[in-house]
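cache lookup: miss for this entity combination. No prior model stored, computing from scratch. Input as submitted by user K.M.:
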Amino acid sequence: MKEHNLADLEAAFNEKLKQDIRIEPKDWMPDAYRKTLIRQISQHAHSEIVGMLPEGNWITRAPNLRRKAVLLAKVQDEAGHGQYLYSAMETLGASREESIDDMHTGKAKYSSIFNYPTLTWADMGAVGWLVDGAAIMNQVPLCRTSYGPYARAMVRICKEESFHQRQGYEIMCTLMKGSEEQKAMAQDALNRFWWPALMMFGPSDADSTHTQQSIDWKIKRHTNDELRQMFVDATVPQAELIGLTIPDKDLKWNEERGHYDFGEINWDEFWQVVSGNGPCNAERIATRLKAKEDGMWVREAAMAHAEKKKAKKAS
Amino acid sequence: MKNSLFTYTLRIADDSLILGQRLSEWCGHGPIIEEDIALTNIALDLIGQATSLLEYAAQVEGKGRNADDLAFLRFENQYFNTQLVEQKNGDFAVTMVRQWIFDTFRLPFYEALQHSADKQLAAIAEKSLKETKYHWKHSSEWIIRMGDGTEESAKRVNDALQLLWKFSDELFFMDDVDRELMSQGIAIDLESLRPAFNERIQFVLQQATLQLPDSKWKLNGGRVGRHTEHFGHLLAEMQYMQRAYPNMEW
C-alpha cells in the first residue's frame, strides 16, 4: 500500500473515532487496534466460559427449585455471552479455535476472579453481587466502545448482567434475614470475594500497560482505578444496608473527595493469580481442556455426518 | 383416589426432576458451547416442569408440604422416577441416548395427557409438550449424527444403546394407581402409546443406521421406589443444603 494512502486511511479512522462513529469489521483499522480488540474480546469471551465453572459447581446443590432454575438460567446466559463475544472476535479475523487453545496454554487470559473457589451457597450470592457487579462497571462503558460488533454485543450482555447482579444481591439479602449460620455464611463469602472483586479492574493505572492507548482509541472510556472507585462507592452502601461488613479496616468515607478511601490491594496476590498460581487456575484450565478433549469425537461426528449429508444431496 | 393422584403426579414430576438434575451436571463441560446452552436449556425446562408438577402434588396431598419439601426431603424409596433417568451421564452418547429414549416416550405421553380429565395435569402437559417437541428434535438429531457420523461415534452411541435400552420398558409401567385414574379419564393408558413410541424409535434408528439390542431383558423398579446404586449419590448431592440446614429460607 502506498504511503499516502495509508496516511489517508489512518486519518479517516481517527476522524471516525473523533466523531464517535463506530468502526465496523470492513473498515480499515490499525493493526495494533485490531490486536488490542482481539485480546480484550477474547479475554472477555474466555471469562464467560470459565466463569460457568465456579457457579456450575453449585447448580446440583442449589437449596431449592427456584434457586436451581435461576442459577441454571444464569450460567446459560454466560454460555450465550461467550458465544456472541467469540462471534464479535471472529469479525476481526481471529479464530475461535486458536484463541481457545491459547487460553488452554495460558497465553490468553481470562478474568482472575474465576480462579477462586466457590465454597458455600453464599458464594452464589457473592459472585452475582460482586463479580457481576464489577463486570457491569467495566462493561457499561463498553456499550459505547468504538468497535461496532463489540459495542452491540455489550448492550445485550449488560442487560443480563445487571439482572444477575440483582439476583446475587437478593441471595445475600435472604441470607442476612435468615439464621445465624446463614448470616455467617454470607459474611464469609464477602470476606473471601471482596478483594478478588476489586482486583477484577486490573492493575492500578500506574502499572497498566494498555490503558492509555485503549482510551485514545475509545475502546476503554475509564481507567482501571476510576472504575474500581465507582465499584467501591456503589457497593459499600449495599453491604451496610443488609448488615454486612466490608473486610477492609482502611475503608472510610472521604467527605472532601466525595468517595470512599480504601485499603491497598495485595498486588503480589494479584500478579500471582494472573500468572497462573491462584487457588483454581490449574483446575479450571484442566476442566476446560478435558471438555474439549472429551468433546472431540462429538464434533468430529457432527462434521462427518454433515459431509455425508452433503454428498448424498449432491449425488 | 387422592393417594393415587398424588403418586401419579409424583411419578411424572420425579422423571423431570431427576433428569433435570442429571443434565445440570453437564453445565460448563459440554463438547461445544452450543451444547452447553442446549443441555442447560433442557435441564431448565425439566426443572420447570418438575416445579409445576410438585406444586400440584403438594396441593393434592394437602398435608402442608410444598414443592421444595417434596423435591428435597423425601427418602430414596419415596421417589418414583424411572431408573432410566437416574442413570449416570457417562459420555455424551450415554446422555443423549438416555434423553432420546425419554423424549420419545414423553412426546406421545404429553400429547395424550393434555386431554386428561384432570385440568391441572392437562394444562401442565400442554405447556410441557411444546418443550418436549424441541427436546426430542434435538436428541434425535444427535442420535442420527452419532450413528451416521464416524466409526468412533457409531460405536459409542451403539454402546450407549446397549447400556440403556433395558431401562426403556419401565416408562410403560402401570399398576393400580394408573388403572384407578384411567377409569376416571385422568391417567393415560401407557400401552396405547407403544405404537407411536416404537415408530419414532425406528424412524430415528433407521436414519442413524443403528439397531436395537437383541436382548429382550428389561429392568424396572423406580416407579415403586426401588432405585439403582447411583440414585443415593444423586440425592446426597441434591439434598445437601436442605439436609444440612433444615427449615431455612434460601
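stored under new cache key. The CA atoms of residues 33 and 39 of chain B lie 10 Å apart.
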